[in-house]
């Protein structure tokens, strides 16, 4: 459920880093759970297109966490989602993705970089600084971050992977020299590592002893981070909640696959569908459940069907029910859902599994190749995502490959470019009432 909106204004912070792998997620989760335990109403958000981290934020805070994306969302939608994320909270902690300034080549404020979000809302930046293999030199990285973008305020740093008290002292010497506050120092501790999978962390719902892990992180924050200083550093604004230009629901009673194989739905889409009056009816393909017959549309999200291909292939009630549903009502699949709507799915060991056969595509996880980036799509025909000619913006992140030839204009879902306008040809498929593609919808364009 969405939070109750109050008149209490929230402030914000961006938890960022100079590069991936610095420990942003660990520090963010530690702060979220620790501040919640102190009685603050704290909210989480994730900068950029990520499904996994927001679920961990939600587990840490007990409230939804939303994605904020300065490229894929126009200003109206971005403000609406940021407002929904922070509604009723004292503090909104936004976790960055990749490096603070990493994005596409675009006009200022629309690059998709974390920095755009901090600048738009005036949120100070707390830099997570991985100091493994460095001492005083780590200050040069922090200094560069502070100087690179005059729109931002660097509130301080949290050191990560600190090897010893002496190591911390040496790092702090450099930071003191340039006047950047140290808000905490997290020791190098293997027990803090969360389990990972090929698209990132193991999902929150699958992580063993998640509550204990989160409480352990909160204990660490209490002993390693100056929580009072972090709260005092927050600032800027969180906009008032609004509807924004959310993509309309593909049906008013919408069957949505939801289990360990199908779990990637952006929270703002789910919230937007509900705000438009749609009823979301979950069902589990892994439990061999068919889409409910009283629904008027079906959505197969992304996830990890490649890890469950044999089980899906054996789920006859699900597959037969999906085929029957498609005879009279629309179905759309994103990424993993698209793979399941196809003819076959080859798993990591090279074994081929028969899928629903509703779209003329065969996919393989054995023939891995990274596909990553924003996608600007123009629909070729009318379907679940809108009328022919509708512009969409989304994101693609997967390792699976298509074994079948690329679609032509008569069967493609959309004509697609990358974020900088480079034509990528036709993508996805549509056949009858069924459609799908590897890109995940974020918003309209």
TrEMBL record:
PROSITE patterns tied to this protein: GATASE_COBBQ
Record site: Increases nucleophilicity of active site Cys: 440
UniProt cross-references to Gene3D superfamilies, sorted A to Z: 3.40.50.880, P-loop containing nucleotide triphosphate hydrolases
The enzyme's E.C. designation: 6.3.5.9
EC class: ligase
Entry annotation: catalytic residues: 335 (nucleophile)
Protein's UniProt keywords contain Cell inner membrane: no
Catalytic activity as recorded in UniProt: hydrogenobyrinate + 2 L-glutamine + 2 ATP + 2 H2O = hydrogenobyrinate a,c-diamide + 2 L-glutamate + 2 ADP + 2 phosphate + 2 H(+)
Molecular function GO labels: ATP binding; cobyrinic acid a,c-diamide synthase activity; hydrogenobyrinic acid a,c-diamide synthase (glutamine-hydrolysing) activity
Keywords assigned: ATP-binding, Cobalamin biosynthesis, Glutamine amidotransferase, Ligase, Magnesium, Nucleotide-binding
CobB/CobQ-like glutamine amidotransferase domain: residues covered: 254-442
Signal peptide range: none
Annotated domain remarks: Comprises of two domains. The C-terminal domain contains the binding site for glutamine and catalyzes the hydrolysis of this substrate to glutamate and ammonia. The N-terminal domain is anticipated to bind ATP and hydrogenobyrinate and catalyzes the ultimate synthesis of the diamide product. The ammonia produced via the glutaminase domain is probably translocated to the adjacent domain via a molecular tunnel, where it reacts with an activated intermediate.
Its biological purpose: Catalyzes the ATP-dependent amidation of the two carboxylate groups at positions a and c of hydrogenobyrinate, using either L-glutamine or ammonia as the nitrogen source.
Protein name: Hydrogenobyrinate a,c-diamide synthase
Native source species: Methylobacterium aquaticum
